[in-house]
Write a structure and sequence with these properties.
This protein is of the alpha+beta class. It has three domains: 279 residues, BirA Bifunctional Protein, domain 2 (2-Layer Sandwich); 47 residues; 103 residues, Rossmann fold. Helices cover 30% and strands 26% of the residues. Strand 4 and strand 5 form a beta hairpin.
Length: 451
């Protein structure tokens, strides 16, 4: 049986070979902590983001105890007024402890030394080789800096946002004033975040540029515990519903000592990657910490008046904050399946909603009038689902290609199609085949995909 490290290496190799994920600027030697998505990866990531947007923003689950709530979207700038990051605490405290090695000149996260190989002797961990000379840890701020405008002085200094959340907090008033929403209210955002991680690691898991999906859910302070439990469970179930096996997922409540100073409670959704159980998403009760901090620093009123309670208060916030790239990596890891008895010993068992290509259409041979039957079928399907046409190489190789891409169904047009109008449908997961009338391809896909 392959070791966990081998499994990870094979996943990385398949992702590159099939165009899911590439190293960024690879032809120049790459750049640590940055990744590009290829054609299949781009479709997969888009499906993950669309599933989240659909299931959280457009069609959220029913509230607890029949409670109603509203969800709206927002799309904020990556670069914001730097005062935002002073108020949020990121300028003062968004640090990781860093040590330098005077021997190899490497820089390491002081709290991850036992997971970071020594650059001079990779069989040992940083600090464990006899020549290592580590300095005392010091705080390293993770925010990327730039300058806005033509003058590159301190007054023009700006930051690339390290989280999408603050854009939501500072727009709380704008959203509530410009729409007819009422609390409880979730404001949702997907987008890029940037953190100058000291040691990016584990493929795309810890990157320097990544995407987040975040909900800031504003509610009355007395209801925050109820909404916290609701969102924690909704978010956990969402991952299971998209195919992450529940025994590989863990919902871990933080101990009191582990809680951030502003959080009343927090839980992590963790996935058992080949490199160990690691966080996909955190769900936190952030109390009124953020709105109060922005009220103090901006001087603006971010309170809410509740018509029914006849009460003005600073809303509490429940924050489900997930990493899109980490979710994509978890879905890839879960989908990766090895079966030596198949033409494609490695294949991707994506949930149908996430599969980059939903179906492929093949003429058994590229002659005898079969392409003429196959092409209109794929054209009709493509109007509804991303589908591919492939007429090259043996049918076994074509199935194998689609299995590696994670395509749930393949329709094959053969000699019998000309006689009785039926085509074969092959199921990716068990390689079983049945025949259906060629006029039923779209209906069949709809029934099977449920989307
Ligand atoms: N607004 C709260 C917040 O940003 P976080 O735990 O720092 O909380 C939320 O980040 C999520 O963003 C994490 O659970 C993780 O999925 C993702 N994330 C954080 N840092 C990341 C990195 N360096 N690379 C990839 N994803 C990251």
């Amino acid at each position: 049986m392959a070791s966990k490290a081998d499994v990870m290496d094979r996943i990385v190799a398949l992702c590159k070979r099939r165009g899911f994920i590439f190293q960024s600027s690879e032809i120049y030697g790459g750049i640590g902590g940055f990744w590009d998505y290829g054609p299949l990866g781009t479709e997969l990531k888009r499906n993950v983001k669309d599933a989240w947007w659909n299931d959280m923003v457009r069609n959220p689950p029913a509230g607890p105890e029949g409670r109603e709530f509203q969800m709206v979207g927002i799309d904020c700038a990556i670069i914001m007024n730097p005062k935002v990051w002073v108020a949020s605490g990121h300028v003062g405290g968004f640090n990781d402890p860093m040590v330098d090695c005077k021997c190899c000149k490497g820089r390491f996260r002081a709290d991850q030394l036992n997971e970071t190989p020594c650059p001079k002797k990779p069989s040992k961990m940083a600090g464990q080789h006899s020549e290592c000379q580590l300095t005392e840890p010091r705080a390293f701020n993770l925010m990327f800096e730039s300058h806005a405008g033509a003058v590159r002085d301190d007054a023009a200094k700006v930051y690339l946002r390290p989280e999408t959340a603050q854009g939501i907090f500072v727009n709380f008033r704008n959203v509530t004033d410009s729409t007819r929403v009422k609390l409880p209210l979730g404001i949702c955002q997907q987008g890029k975040s940037f953190r100058n991680e000291i040691n990016p690691r584990n493929y795309t898991f810890r990157s320097r540029e990544f995407e987040q999906y975040e909900i800031e859910f504003f509610c009355h302070p007395s209801e925050a515990p109820m909404w916290y439990e609701f969102w924690r469970d909704v978010r956990h179930r969402w991952y299971v519903g998209l195919g992450l096996r529940s025994e590989k997922l863990r919902l871990r409540e933080h101990d009191k000592e582990e809680l951030a100073h502003y959080a009343a409670s927090c839980a992590d959704v963790e996935y058992d990657f080949p490199f160990g159980l690691s966080e996909l998403e955190g769900i936190a009760n952030r109390t009124d910490f953020d709105l109060k901090a922005h009220m103090e620093h901006s001087g603006k009123d971010l309170t809410w008046f509740d018509d029914q309670r006849k009460e003005r208060f600073v809303p509490y916030v429940i924050e489900p904050s997930g990493g899109i790239d980490r979710s994509v990596l978890a879905f890839i890891t879960e989908a990766y399946t090895v079966d030596e008895n198949r033409a494609s010993p490695e294949y991707m068992k994506f949930h149908p909603r996430l599969a980059p290509i939903k179906a492929a259409v093949f003429p058994l041979v590229a002659k005898d009038g079969l392409p003429e039957i196959a092409e209109p079928i794929v054209q009709a399907l493509q109007k509804h689902y991303p589908c591919q046409y492939d007429a090259k190489q043996s049918i076994g190789k074509r199935y194998a290609r689609m299995d590696e891409a994670g395509t749930p169904f393949c329709f094959t047009i053969d000699g019998q199609t000309k006689e009785d109008g039926t085509v074969t449908v092959r199921n990716r997961d068990d390689a079983s085949q049945i025949r259906i009338d060629r006029s039923r391809c779209l209906e069949y896909l709809r029934d099977q995909l449920h989307i």
